Amino acid sequence: MADLGAVKRKVAELESKNDIDKAISELEKAIQDFPKEGSLFNKLGDLYIKVSRQREALEIYLRGARVFKDETYYPNAIALCKKILRLDTERTDVYFLLGDLHKELGQRVEAANYLLEFAERKVKAGSLEEALKTYNIIKELVPNNSKILQTISAIYAQLGKKDQGAEFLKEAKQIETKQREIKDTYKAGGTIEKTVEVAPKVEPVKTPEKPMVPPEPKDEPPPVVAEKPADMTIDDIVSPEIAELLKDEMREPEVKPPVEEAPPSDTPVAVEEKVEAPVKAEKTGEKAVGETDISKELSEIDKTIELAELYLNLGSEEEAIDCFRNAAIEAFNQEEYDRSAKLNKRISDLRPTDLKSRQQLVEIAQIKDDKPSQINYMLELAEALNRRDAKSQAQELFRKVLELDPENAQAKDMIIETKEPVKDFIDLGEVLRTEFDTDKKPEGLQNIQDLISQFKKEVFDSIGEGDYRSHYDLGVAYKGMGLFQEAIEEFDIAARDISLKLKAYESIGSCLLERGKTEDAIKILNEGLRVPNRPAREYFGLYFMLASCYENQNNMPMALKAYMNAYNMDKTVTDLTKKINELKVKVTEDLKKKGKIPATPPPKKTEETKPKEPEKIVPKKSKVTYL
Predict the structure, then answer these.
(1) Which residues contact 362 (CB under 8 A, 6 or more apart)?
(2) Residue pLDDT, tens place only, 482-517
(3) How many other C-beta atoms are found inside a 10 Å radius of the C-beta of residue 589?
(4) Do the domain assignments include residue 461?
(5) Which domain holds residue 398?
(6) Are 67 and 83 within 8 A, CB to CB?
(7) What is the pLDDT of residues 361-406, one digit of tens each?
(8) Nearest C-alpha neighbor of 67 from the set 100, 97, 28, 41
(9) Residue finishing a domain among 400, 426, 452
(10) pTM for the whole structure
(11) Which of 222, 467, 552, 611 has its CA 20 to 30 Å from the CA of residue 357?
């Protein structure tokens, strides 16, 4: 059997010589020898596309996706499925496979989206049994949701399966009864039983017969602390004259991340704020943290928030969301805009595709005349619309963002050029109406399509975010297969996790650079450098990628500066010193070509030496003493 590495090298060599047919022949043999190597299927599919063999490409991509799934490389499998749908959106089986793969990754929003699409297509094709099985899978993504169970029950009843529908209705009523009991107990001032962890028993330590005598302290020399190497500056690597010229070339203000210090007061920093229930003070007469007066009763808003927190602790997310939303609306009506914003952020964290909370955040930012926040919330709203498959409304929002900020890199990258004018008003109700007509009551729904639309809306309104790390990994898989737009969308989701934020920005910058959008890449990378209080190693990648962008623009002085900043973040990378020295030579040569410094340096001026004055001879004293 041939070596896998040798096969890949031979294929690459044949492709470089434009001998595509021979490369295809090699790969067709290789997938027989290495049936579990998904990357071979991906490459073979790409080569089929090059020679216009689309049907074979689709089949080989699908086989590769199943291989990746069997080997638990779920992000790679998803990337291959995306390639299939780019070529043929009518492959219904691929939607189910995508839903299953996203479910394995814990990405419930995407899983629900693809499974709903699959079920809807099956209903239209008359395959109702397959659709019903899929609805049962979707139900598992949002457990303990009575509304969804009621809608599934209605769908079963509509299809003549009343007995099975009754089981779902019974389960929904049990959930509602439990939630009602919780609410009634709370209102009555009772206590909710919670599972209490019992601490393990600790065996008593036996007292030693003889008293322990502590050892006498020994005089030890103080530990030697290694000196931290000084940061590199331009003055360290070139002469003072060239350094002065390069400082003129590097006119852009340097962005230095405050790694250990608090951010300056005039720099706006996005902080994830959490709404917490008020902490009750002990019986000492002191006030609780966040309480204004213990003697006063909690306001209706406080009570609603406290109930929401209780529901969350008991795993009733749907009820908690309703409470948070009621409190946010009441705070908004009372013009407590900051409080309303905090509550809406809490809802948007729990429900990544929720539209109402993000719409209200945009309104609050407009009222407070906070343009940066308004742009940020509009981008989040557009992303939520995208994930709900409301692409046209998302595009309108991205265009509105560009009206407010024409240089916004994220909006520019997400926009799809069309000749349609920008709407002054984004009708989010249109999105919700397409999912479910709000004027209709569930009891009055007469056809299956209305029930499916209602079910789809309830799923998106109830589902939470999965693991951000899985979105980052999926972005890496997309990027590796050349799906840069899809990769950027995944990295953008991953960036919500502060521990992944800088890595995500670095990866977005890399994708933009690959697509030839160097200016946008530089803006995104600089945005990452403004994120405070992260470990130095996370800034290293941003500076390194920034240097690559400047090199791509042939802006060598700025590239040199970025590489030096990267070196200052991590001085252990030996190849980086070599790169800095190479760029130093290039920059010096460029300055010579521009005539800013002479080709040969002028001889150093020697100081004129003054003739030495003859030394005065001091007469020695006589050793004779006079008495």
Answers:
(1) 374, 377, 378, 381
(2) 888 888 888 888 888 888 889 999 999 999 999 888
(3) 12
(4) no
(5) 317-426
(6) no
(7) 999 998 989 988 888 888 888 887 877 767 788 888 888 888 888 8
(8) 41
(9) 426
(10) 0.57
(11) 467
